[in-house]
Amino acid sequence: MTPSEVQLSRRRALQLAAATGTGLAAAAATTGSASATPPGRRSPVFGHGVASGDPLPRSVVLWTRVTPTPAATPGSGQGPAADVEWEVAADPGFRRIVRRGSVRTGPARDHTVKVDADGLSPATGYWYRFRCAGALSAVGRTRTAPAADATVPRLRMAVVSCANLQAGWFTAYRHLAARSDLDLVVHLGDYLYEYAPGEYQARDVVVRPHDPATEIVSLSDYRRRHAQYKTDPDLQALHAVAPWVVTWDDHESANDAWSGGAENHTEGAEGAWRARRAAAQQAYAEWMPVRYEAGGQLYRRLRFGRLASLSMLDLRSHRDQQASSPVDPALDDPSRTIAGPEQLQFLLDGLADQQVQWKLVGNPVMIAPVRFPSGLESRAAEGVAALVDLPVPPVAGVPYNVDQWDGYPAERAAVLGHLRDRGIRDAVFLTGDIHSGWANELPADPSTYPLTGDSVGVELVCTSVTSDNLDDILGTPPRTASAAVETAVKVNNPHVKYLDFDSHGFSVLELTEAGAQMDWFVLTDRTDPRAAAVWSTSWRVPAGSSRVERAAGRLR
Ligand SMILES: [Fe+2]
Fold this sequence. Notes:
Helix 3 runs parallel beside helix 5 and helix 7 runs parallel beside helix 8 (about 410-420). The protein is of the alpha+beta class. About 20% of the residues lie in helices and about 25% in strands. The protein contains ten helices and 26 strands. The chain binds fe (ii) ion. Fe (ii) ion binds next to loops.
């Protein structure tokens, strides 16, 4: 989503930031998420929390960051090398230690620590902690994946995306951390945002200003921004209770990134894109609990017994540049790619795997086609805001967001045609990016319009943790102008079964052999650190159906 849709003078925004920005000390004092945080002694050495990720049947990635001396601030390149001990135990009191080791870190990797702890048992809960410079970290809880051939009765995961620190509090993370039923957390991207204070916030208010107080461009900048996010107590709490499986979208580098640049990158004035992207990737590899090192390949597949696989996609590193508009003839080029040929084949292979029932795809941008009615082409650059004036019910039209799979129709046709031609069932795309909640069926042939024919899969889209959405862009109260737009989108796109353009929050997905169900929860106020999370709706995918239907109630 392009923040230029939200217009606010930089000076005004900076004034508001100065007036309202309270900083992290206040954040820690007012959110007070101690009840959700596992036991463990806090220390300035471990000021960025602990995390785990990418669970396999016998191993899991463990992460922390140490500040062994005051000089070793994130992004500084200063401070001494430090030895960090780690322990994995079968009990929260660490009486039964099952693995331990020691690693050395230092300024070359910004004093981050990432350990692939192996020799573990499948489908087992563990506790882990670190020691450095005489200090003990908080205790984290994690869980290995089931064995590949295991029968798994149930898998439950949080699904989140788009957490702009300047746009609000991470209460969504705190509410998730307070649950005890999560096997993992799937983060679909926009874990952080690259903007300076005043460039993108909650409508016209910077709730908490970014650090550094500039758009991030250099390696030092990206490291500092990661560090700032990881001082948030709610984010720390959710990292500490379950393993995360993450991918990036655009804002981990710059808005609307593609393989050779980004909308929010000025070649030359902001250095070379190649260097900026390398800096963003290095900081991501250092600061995230992911089995990825800079220069490597982020897309990967995890497996949860015979119940599910999860193919996490990287739709930024290999894609062609976005089309200039929804009527750009480039859209018709059959060679356009969003995944790149190798990743596309990786995706098709995963979808065709008959050893596993649910084929989940961690899909950073929406794959369901969403069309403008014809006649609004001239306003296409306004994005979905142009739909406010929509006559109902026109049909035929052009895609409304060419940063999504809608901008790469040939490659999408290959994916959906593969599902149809192979008779693949139980393919579920989990999607973020668009700051709104959707439940979509996936038409077998998205090249025809209006769309007809069978559904070959489903797409469940979580809304943003905090980032602006339609009522924010329009500057209208929630559930007013945007409700009319939702109706218009659904009338013109009948495969869209559920749509909420206004809420912020999180989703929880459960898989069983009988079906998949996603619950959507919405925050009462993203700018209130004490906001409640309220159940909004639930949609269910009966096994074998490739259809979504409203569920009778939320998961219990
Ligand atoms: Fe986003």
